[in-house]
Amino acid sequence: MTDYIAIIGKYYPGTQASCIGDSTVYTNVVWTSSPIAQADLDAKALIDAQSNKNDEINQYRDQVFAGGFLDSNGIRWNASSTDISNINAVCTLIALGVVTSNQTWRDTSNTNHTLTPTQLVQLAGGMATFGQAAYANSWTHKANVAALTTITDVNNYNITTGWPT
User: Fold this and answer.
1) pLDDT > 70 fraction of the chain, expressed in percent and rounded
2) Model pTM?
3) Is the pLDDT of residue 145 over 70?
4) In this structure, how many other beta carbons lie within 10 angstroms of the beta carbon of residue 146?
5) Domain residue spans in the chain?
6) Which residue, 15, 17, 103, 156, shows the most beta carbons closer than 10 Å to its own?
């Protein structure tokens, strides 16, 4: 529901208003300075709802990253920003010829796997593909939310579809 008094305070700090009864009903707002049209307040409330939904999308995307991704061998690998940074550093050392031997890498269940340099580079590629798919899905959801025209539709929008595993 739209809290008109909160919207007024956020977007129109010089405007003074109070509320008789429920602040989610525009007709209950009592103006002590020039009133703001309900349509303007509703537009600001929609922007807030869309921003909040985008925050939810970002949080859900981060949960997807934290859950890791499943490779073609059925192993679920960690894919947090730290994990991606770590494997990219190892791949850089592989490319420079510093790392030439097998390395131990841990999956999401804390099981060690011995991987060749080629397998590590393939794993990094899988992480990058997973990460790009997760970001692309979040962008799609955000575009869908931006196209919604009511607060109810924004609040009811399902952000859990289309994510990579």
Assistant:
1) 99
2) 0.84
3) yes
4) 12
5) 1-36, 38-156
6) 17
